[in-house]
Amino acid sequence: xxxxxxxxxxxxxxxxxxxxxxxxxxxxxxxxxxxxxxxxxxxxxxxxxxxxxxxxxxxxxxxxxxxxxxxxxxxxxxxxxxxxxxxxxxxxxxxxxxxxxxxxxxxxxxxxxxxxxxxx
Length: 120
Known about the structure:
Layout: E1 15-21, H1 26-39, E2 42-44, E3 58-64, H2 69-79, E4 84-89, H3 94-99, E5 103-105
Antiparallel strand pairs: 1-3, 1-4, 2-3, 4-5
């Protein structure tokens, strides 16, 4: 049995959403990126057409404060279209954040957890 105290969401300084796209959904990803930048207080990361970190598909990252979580994630749920999105907290434990604390909108894509010090 795990005897660690529960994690405190009040201590999460930031969340990330990773928006995944394919060549045929790139236009939808561009439109979503414009909307996210216009509607929310976010930091939009670079486009990654080549695989980076644990991600096994092309994507860009959206970083946002906890105060935006409810509005932004709700908006993504209703407006993600053909795109798959991974949402996770930034707790300082990259492996747990991507593997254990993550929520998927759309298809759950495989991750290369070894890039974060874990195993698949």
